[in-house]
Amino acid sequence: MKSWNKLKPLSTVVFLGFAVLIVVTSVTMIFLGWFGMFLIGIAGLLISTRLELHDGIAVPDFDYGSSSVSIIARQNAERDQAGWQDQIDEKNRKARQKALIYNLNTLWMTMMALGLVMFSTHQV
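Request: output the structure for the sequence above.
Response:
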């Protein structure tokens, strides 16, 4: 069993991501108005969808060649050799991560819809 907590770095990244999001959203709202909020919503939705699609697994890229294939093979071997407790922990971690991504996607879609509606309303 691993001795470090995988969620602690994730929560730190989420906290820093929200701090950056607040700053970027404020700046885009100042310069672009509601259209800026729409753009931030789309960008956040694209990023979180990409994270959800890859699910923490290395994705083979043509840029990296065969090195990513060996990374995927190592990840699969580690997953197969893990004990039942580690597998349960991994499933729980993935369930929490999927819940977090679902909530973030809801936030991004709300920002996107609000930005688009307010932008189109104020253009008339």
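Residues 43 and 49 are 10 Å apart (CA to CA).
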